Structure to design on (162 residues):
């Protein structure tokens, strides 16, 4: 997996303490992006699954957040990583510039498989015109914080906290 960085003890990328993985590569190029250095698909470093899990398991109290860049550009590896994190009883959040509806149609079976491991998906491109610093867990008003578990169970989208 191409990883730009891993940040431990984040308190802004979901509830509680989290270890956030910033994946390399993004094709959205959102104006005002807080992490434009993540756009290069060949940026960061290559990490094996063992290296990744070793780092993610350093603090057993932390849950996990996938961010970027765009994690979905590495979706097959992301599925394997999410599965291993769930085996360790981790709560998993994932940030993506794609909409849920785009993931369902463009990533089909891969997203269907990944989504069963995600607790929350924050979807939608960052729009500088809709930026709002008071929003919890997202940067612009158009983005949605989706409760994946409930949405999958009830076959319709539910926002986190509804």
């Amino acid at each position: 997996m191409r990883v730009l960085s891993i940040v431990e003890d984040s308190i802004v990328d979901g509830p509680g303490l989290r270890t956030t993985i910033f994946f390399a590569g993004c094709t959205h190029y959102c104006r005002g992006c807080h992490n434009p250095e993540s756009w290069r698909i060949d940026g960061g470093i290559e990490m094996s699954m063992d290296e990744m899990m070793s780092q993610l398991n350093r603090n057993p109290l932390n849950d996990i957040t996938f961010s970027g860049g765009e994690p979905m550009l590495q979706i097959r590896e992301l599925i394997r990583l999410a599965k291993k994190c769930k085996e360790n009883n981790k709560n998993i959040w994932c940030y993506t510039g794609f909409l849920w509806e785009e993931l369902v149609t463009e990533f089909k079976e891969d997203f269907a498989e990944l989504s069963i491991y995600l607790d929350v998906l924050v979807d939608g491109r960052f729009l500088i015109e809709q930026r709002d610093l008071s929003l919890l867990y997202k940067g612009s008003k158009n983005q949605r914080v989706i409760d994946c578990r409930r949405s999958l169970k009830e076959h319709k989208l539910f926002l986190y906290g509804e």
In short: DSSP finds five helices and seven strands in the chain. The radius of gyration is 15 Å.
